[in-house]
Amino acid sequence: MTWLRAFGEVVRSGLTIEETRLEPLLALRTAAGVAIVIGPALWLASPAYAAAAALGAYSAGGATFQRTCRPRKVIALGTGAGLALSSFLGYLAAGRLVTFLPLLAVWAFAAGMAWAVGSTAGIVAATTVGSMLVTITLPTSVWRALEHAGVIALGGVAQTVLILLFPIRRWGAHRDALADALAAVADYARRLREDPTAPFDPEPLVSARDAAAVTPSQARTRPPVLHGPRGLAERIRPVVAALADPDVGAPAEGPGRDRARELLDAAADVLDTAARSIRRGTPAEVPPESIDVLRVDKDHEVLEGSARQAAEQLVELLGEAMEIARSGDESGKTPTPPGPASAEFLVRPTMLRLVPVVIRAVRRELRRDSPVFRHAIRLAAVAPLGYLLATRLPLGHGYWAPITSVMVMRPDFHRTYARAVARFAGTLAGVALATAMVQALGSGTHVCAALAVISAGLSYTLIRTGYAYSQCFTAAYAVFLLGMGGQTWAQTVPQRVVLTLLGGALAMLAYVVFPAWETPRLPGRLADWLAANGRYAAAVLRNYAEPTREHHADVRRALLASREAGAAWQESYDRARQEPVRPRGLTSREAGEAQEALKGFGRAAMLMESQPSRADVRFVPESKRFAEALEADTAQAAVDVRLHRNPDWRRVKEALHAWDGAAGDRSPVARRGAELQKRALDDLATAVSRTPLERDVSSAREEQRVRAAGEAEGDESGGARRGG
To answer: In this structure, is residue 488 part of a structural domain?
Structure first.
């Protein structure tokens, strides 16, 4: 992708309105937290204290809107504490560049490394850098610095108290994640009705697993309805795939295919009903016509063999889904079973026990090629540089430039540039709106305070519709907050616009100077996914050979590792497609073909997992031999892909040939799955196998194709403008 086209995609992405469900009650409660601290602070103290309290309340409230399954009160309280600490240290060092700039660089580096834990930690840590930069009033002593830090922390405490007193959609994030998992499988069943090989995005199942992890205290109060949906979705997904697949399930045409379509439709209806019940916390009734379809007649059922087995499995699993839908949100607490907690639920560490987890995660990212480490280096350089440049300009509030840089910078190229564009556009609209409101209503202290609270509420309401639209009201909020302290719009508006532009430009320039491109990392990500898929497929085959509890546990662990590697590949692939970087190792077309091949490989393993070995077949030696060959060849192929060598499937071919020669195949489903896996591996080899000359020619052709597509798009836009 050329720089011009990449920047066009950045602008489009930054200004896109995301279709999401608004949460006005949450926004109202959080805005009330801002109002609660501003009002008393204005009455009892001064506008400076009110601004400090508003800083803590606004930032802590915004943190509770992050997509996380941690309790909102914990997020608000932790954010308030982080803001207070960073503000206290910043106040102590403020006024002396020789002490403040090194402190700012170290704090910004630590905030950048917080992305090793996750996006929520990274975003919250960035807000603490912003609070360190905002010096509302220069303290004259350590006690005064501690006093202002306490006022800022009070804002986080106020948000926490409101969350405790007025809970809204308790367990809402968990409900949404588990309901989304069931809805995703329902959508998958409907797509399988028309396309038996339709792909499935595992992201909802990954989110559901994260939502299912709870602390021991949460486990005692978790609603009973949230216990089984994740596992149910996990079990139903391979069964509907096996039923729809013409190779191992229903025939491609005829009455069997029609019956399979009916079952898939009914499964989708039942799963959607269960998802609605979980999301709303109320019982729901499954359509009677769907229940009629799910009755399997032993004497007149048209499906036979493995297809009939899949249909019976599906009906049994959907019975559990119907129980979930009918139970809704029954009152009562979850009993705590005896024995170790980890045996009954996924354990999420408490905040104190999270410390060693954070240390290990940060330590893993302390390497030069890590995107998180490079992001931390960029933050540590840009924050002090932006502050130094802005303070040298003949403008006030120089902290706006580094705050802009810190808040828009992300570990990847596309989001950094898109947020920079969105923040500048939102700031322009926000200061224009604030200016108009001040001129229309006046600039008194109490008027500006009321307008600041209203702007905060609107910002929270739109926080998930797009960064630009939320930022519009955030900018207005900042202007009103400064107006509350006696500064006119003529002083703040030009400064805000110029310094926002400076901060966004520094953030963009930092990524060009010290980038963390994903394009060169694609071969490594592909190799990791290939090796993980190979281990998963081998575990499934070993379970066919010897279906034991230990082998079944191995299948589950390998599946989760494969899913994690696939998610890492998908994230890198999506980012690489948006980067203005010449392909290295894998062109975009080769990466796309390799991705489809590995999806087919994993799908074949999933189909085998959905058809467990029959009770009368306790040992399938051919399956075990093929598993060993498959794991060995995929592990070696992963090394070859990393080193840009062509993979070879010699062991797999020999094992499959020996399986063909074995007398009396006792597991036709496993044999068919092995054949599908071999076909997928051949497709993968075709996708990545190139001579050096072919690879260079392919890269050059792809660059020409992308350039031609960009020129054609430009011509079409120009023609449209001329036609208009």
So the answer is: yes
